[in-house]
Design a protein that fits this description.
CATH class of the largest domain: Alpha Beta
Number of domains: 2
Oligomer: single chain
Radius of gyration: 20 Å
CATH architecture of the largest domain: 3-Layer(aba) Sandwich
Helix content: 25-40%
Number of strands: 17
Structural class: alpha+beta
Shape: globular
Strand content: 25-35%
CATH superfamily of the largest domain: Thiolase/Chalcone synthase
Number of helices: 15
Amino acid sequence: MSIGIDQINFYVPKFYVDMAKLAEARQVDPNKFLIGIGQTEMAVSPMSQDIVSMGANAAQSIVTEDDKKQIGMVIVATESAIDSAKASAVQIHNLLGIQPFARCFEMKEACYAATPAIQMAKDYIAKRPDEKVLVIASDTARYGLNSGGEPTQGAGAVAMMVSQNPRILELNDDAVAYTEDVYDFWRPTGQPYPLVDGALSKDAYIRSFQESWSEYARRTNKQLDDFASLCFHVPFTKMGKKALDSILTDDINDETKERLTNGYDAATYYNRYVGNIYTGSLYLSLISLLETHENLSAGDSIGLFSYGSGSVGEFFSGQLVDGFKDVLDIEGHKALLNNRTEISVDDYEAFFKRFDNLEFDHDVELADEKNEIFYLESINDHIRQYNTLNQ
């Protein structure tokens, strides 16, 4: 049975800050952000957009009325949980109007959780081929104003429909996971921002990739020549490139090096203008690859590396399906990114503080919103109330 990603979509808030202007405000050489970490713009999340509303916004355009009857499971992967008990999947299930007899839950392992969610969905569909699974990765990456991690922030969500006979990417049974207990990035309970050992995190990421790739190659007898392109978890665009370069050794032919390097550039184009969205970063990269790469064809093998600090990494692969381009919303995604509103550094800081303090300013944050979106309207007695705009 062929099982994989049948539909995929992303959502990002409509606000962003220019990284060169942020660098100047922080008295940093702009090239440290633009070239050093490879980021041009950073999505800024208003208080009216949290993991529930962003997740629902990412999913709403790919969930049809028939899908609502067929979805047997909704999984949300996040490390930005808004509740220590109730799963955001339950709230998204309600907003989307999915049939009531669906299993809904939330998964956590830093930025990695969407990948085991997809693997779980794949196993579920193998036993229930007439059903579908909605997997959502939704996060707001926040490190604090003037912090070392500030330029690697971002916000957004990716929604994926997993089913039999997928129209985009057929997943192979070849995943290899690598687990190592390391404190490179963590957020203790009650801590508003994560704690990060930047140098250790980069080393742990690259080691996790090298170990999982090496074991994958040993088990499957595959080489880099077998892949049209590779996608990586992208906390910032230079991170995955460092990992890729680490295996493009002298014994790899120049054609393969060029192909994979060009593929990496295509796969990180969207990420460059969004920033880090944690659990969704790998899958935003996949969308970017599929929509901006000019030379992909049905049957091409795509390798994917997922990483979550702490740490777990996984390398797996899939084959592109005939007609995959027809299922993608290329124009819609370009419009979503191109029609955002740039805000000043001062306004970005005001947004950031409102988010921390749970303070709403709908007159500012919902002004001139032209898309039909879900948004967080209020919080009363710790209960979050969501509404829809332009519907």
